[in-house]
Amino acid sequence: RRVLFRSTTLVARRIGGVQIGYFASPAWLRQHGAPRTPDELRAEQFLCFMFPDGRPLPMRFRSPDGKPMQRMLRAPWHFSDGQALREAAAQGAGIAAMHTFVAERAVLQKRLAPVLRQWWPEPSPVWCLRPPGRLVPQRTRLLIAELERECGKLK
Question: With 135 labelled, which of 27, 91, 116, 153 sits at a CA distance of 20 to 30 A?
Answer without folding.
Answer: 153
